[in-house]
Amino acid sequence: MKPGSGSPQEWGPYEQLFVRYDDDQKALWYHLAPRSRPCFNLDMLSELQQFQRKVKMVNHSATGSGIDSLPIRYTVLASSVPGVFNLGGDLQLFSKLITNGDREGLFAYAKACIDVLFPNSVNFEMPLTTITLVQGDALGGGFEAAISSNVIIAEKSAKFGLPEVLFNLVPGMGAYSFLVRRTAPDLAEKIIMSGELLTAQKMFNLGLIDEVVEDGQGEQAVARFIKKHRKRSNAHAAMNRIKKCINPVTYEELIQITKIWVDAALELTSRDLRMIERLVQAQNRRAGLQKPAPKVLEGFG
Known about the structure:
Elements: E1 17-22, E2 27-32, H1 42-60, E3 74-79, E4 84-86, H2 91-99, H3 103-121, E5 129-134, E6 137-139, H4 141-147, E7 151-155, E8 159-161, H5 175-180, H6 185-194, E9 198-199, H7 200-205, E10 211-213, H8 218-230, H9 233-246, H10 251-265, H11 270-286
Helix pairs in contact: 1-3, 2-11, 3-10
C-alpha cells in the first residue's frame, strides 16, 4: 500500500496478524495469529499498534468527505487459532517481571495493551465501527480485547472469563471500564471477582455481547450485520459519538487503573506466582507445547 493512497489493498507484512480487506463490505478483517502460546506477547502488541496506525493513515488520506468516502468503515477483530480467540496476557512474562520487582517492565507491558485497546474502544476517533468476532475462548486480556469493540458477535461454543482473581489479582487493562459501560457496576465486579467462565449465551443474556450464532456461522453473521448496519451508518456513527459524550472511556482512566494493577501485581506472593505458572502450563497445553498434565484450571487455559 502506498502511503496516502487511501486504498487498503496491501497490508503487512506481519508475523502474528493475518489481514484481509473486503472492498464490498468496506471492512478490514484482522485475525490474531500468535506464535507459541495464544496470548498477547509484546511483538504482537507492537504489530497491532502498527496496524492501527495504518488504519488511521488510510482513512485520513481518503479523498472526499463524510462516512461514505472512508475506505475502511468497519474493522473486524478475530482469531486464526481454532478454539481460541485469545488467552490473555503473557503470564510467563508477568511472572518474570514480578519476581524481579520490575515495575517499569510491568507498566510498559500494560501500557502497550492499553495503547491497542483504547483506539479500538473509541473507533480510532473516526466514524467507523469496530467489531469483534469471538470463535473460541476469550480469557483475561482476550476478554478485554473482545469487549473493547463497539459490536461483539460470538459463536455458540465461545467462552469468556477473567481468571486473574485465581492468582490473587484483578484484570488491569480495561475489563472494569468496558464492563461498566455495558452493565451495572455490581455485576461487573461480580464477573471480575468470581473468575467464572461464561458461555456466549450467558454473555448475551447479560447484555455484554450483541449476537450469538451457531458454530461456523460467525463470519456470515458479521457480513449480515455490516449489510444491515450500512443502511443506517450515519445514525450509528452519531450514536457512537453520543455514547462517548455521555459515558466516555478515557485513556487517562485506563492508565490510572493500569498503575493500580502494577502496584497490586508487585504484591503477589510466591504462592500466587506458582498459580500463574500452572496457568502458563495450561496455556502451553492448549498450544500443544507440552504433554498433558493433571487437570488444574484447564478451563482458564
